[in-house]
Write a structure and sequence with these properties.
The chain is α+β, with helices and mostly antiparallel strands and 441 residues long. The chain has one domain: Anthranilate synthase. The strands form 2 sheets. Strands 2, 3, 4, 6, 9, 10, 11, 12, 13, 14, 20, 23 and 24 form a 13-stranded mixed β-sheet that branches. Strands 1, 5, 7, 8, 15, 16, 17, 18, 19, 21 and 22 form an 11-stranded antiparallel β-sheet that branches. The protein is globular. The structure holds ligand ISJ. The site of the ligand C=C(O[C@@H]1C=C(C(=O)O)C=C[C@H]1O)C(=O)O has 19 residues, from strand 12, strand 16 and strand 24.
Length: 441
């Protein structure tokens, strides 16, 4: 049951919401770097979803939807629909991401106090395949001439470095986490679960209050094949796309099975071959792909599940990866396709971040992990008025403390199967913390 109030929308919602999207030229030199979109952001609560120079950045808050409990996704979607019911929309670009959009980030666990949040921004700038646009979301009284980027963009002040960063243990120190993993392996050997994903957190303290844009630039520059995100203090660069739904086509990038990189390209080629043939990693991967394919099946008329994964190279690790695709069943009568958020809710949590079977793995995580994951490993992304959108899994990320922007919680987890070795998993978790440590340096 959801514990959310019946109307979980706050923030002086403009009614009706007036939404206008116009084509726009990004400032000179704007193509083709992700940084250019990020350059438009001001320091206050920036919203972002960018990859290889394309994506969405946004600022301001026209409305905010806060949800809790097992129904958090459905509650968020209902509130978003209500907001849109009386919206007046003029969209001159008509691409995925134009018109009204909202950004969201949701807790991993149904019972987490973190719940979930959907932020409807006041200004959005997007770019896709060389076309850029500007969307404003405002109240009718605020309507002026057609919006122009230079009138609505915050004054450009480059982000300052966060200074020295100190790291301390999170809920479970590294030594004790070895025991957590050992207990996971024991639970697998006793037949309680087949796979479980166990995570840990690390606390960071920066010398100066963190300007989130500093971290976003560094993530987007280095982790170019990842989706760099920022939603209500949750920041990171995830390599894993839970679901993209666009005009009836769904895609999910499933990752599971990891090996650290050495920094030496020749050695890494060898490691990629080891990973591609590792029965332990292939087993881990198979669980994750099966969980995604099963969750999507009821919504799809056809789907494509690759027989074998490919190796996805990131600067810190190599992953086994599979892109699962499907065609959504044609809507009947008044029915519409399920929204991307409804699909994300159906997929969450996949075996890549929870385990197999799902309920037993969830219970095991609650019993032995020793921390609340908050919004780590939950869906993060955006969706539009037609429900299409993109939701990643919040990985390689950190949560900035709401009350003290010098404090962050960094997260990393690892899939554990019968053949897992706790020390190797600890090393893998350290490698997965690299992106955020790099982002803060
Ligand atoms: C849980 C995380 O990553 C997940 C676990 C992986 C693994 O165990 O091999 C790989 C990618 C992700 O699905 C994380 O980065 O925190």
């Amino acid at each position: 049951m959801s514990t959310s109030p019946s109307t979980p929308v706050t923030g002086g919602v403009p009614r009706p919401l007036v939404v206008r999207t116009v084509p726009c030229d990004l400032p000179a030199g704007a193509v083709p770097d992700a940084d250019d979109l990020l350059d438009l952001l001001g320091p206050d609560a920036p919203l972002a979803w960018v990859r290889r120079g394309d994506g969405l950045v946004a600022w301001g808050e026209a409305a905010r939807i806060e949800v809790h409990g097992a129904d958090r996704f459905a509650d968020a979607e209902r509130a978003w629909r209500q907001l849109l019911e009386h919206a007046i929309v003029r969209d001159e670009v008509r691409l995925p991401g134009t018109g009204p959009i909202a950004f969201g980030s949701f807790a991993f666990d149904d019972d987490s106090p973190a719940g979930g949040v959907v932020v409807v921004p006041r200004v959005v700038v997007g770019r896709r395949d060389g076309r850029a646009w500007l969307t404003t979301l405002s109240a009718p009284g605020e309507l002026g001439p057609l919006p122009r980027l230079r009138d609505v963009a915050p004054r450009h002040v480059p982000p300052a470095a966060p200074g020295e960063v100190t790291y301390t243990d999170g809920a479970v120190d590294a030594e004790s986490w070895l025991d957590v993993v050992a207990r996971g392996v024991a639970a697998i050997r006793s037949g309680e679960v087949e796979k479980v994903v166990l995570a840990r957190d690390v606390h960071a303290r920066t010398q100066h209050p963190l300007d989130v844009r500093w971290a976003l630039h560094r993530l987007a520059d280095r982790y170019r094949s990842c989706w760099t995100f920022s939603v209500d203090g949750m920041i990171g660069a995830t390599p894993e796309l839970l679901v993209r739904s666009e005009r009836g086509l769904v895609t999910s990038r499933v990752l599971a099975g990891t090996i650290r990189r050495t920094g030496d390209d020749d050695a890494d080629m060898g490691r990629a071959a080891i990973l591609a043939h590792s029965s332990k990693d292939l087993e881990e991967h198979e669980y994750a792909v099966t969980s995604v394919a099963r969750a999507l099946a009821p919504f799809c008329s056809s789907s494509n599940v690759p027989d074998l994964p490919f190796v996805l190279p990131l600067p810190n690790v190599l992953h086994l990866a599979s892109d699962v695709t499907g065609v959504l069943t044609a809507p009947q009568g008044d029915d519409a396709h399920p929204s991307s958020l409804a699909l994300a809710a159906a997929l969450h949590p996949t075996a890549a971040v929870c385990g197999t079977p799902t309920q037993a793995a969830r219970a095991l995580i609650t019993r032995i992990e020793g921390m609340d994951r908050g919004r780590y490993a939950g869906p993060v992304g955006w969706f539009g008025a037609d429900g299409d959108g993109e939701w990643g899994i919040a990985l390689r990320c950190a949560e900035v403390d709401r009350d003290d922007p010098r404090r962050l919680r960094l997260f990393a987890g690892c899939g554990v199967v019968a053949a897992s070795d706790p020390a190797a998993e600890l090393a893998e978790s350290r490698a997965k913390l690299d992106p955020m440590r790099h982002a803060l340096s």
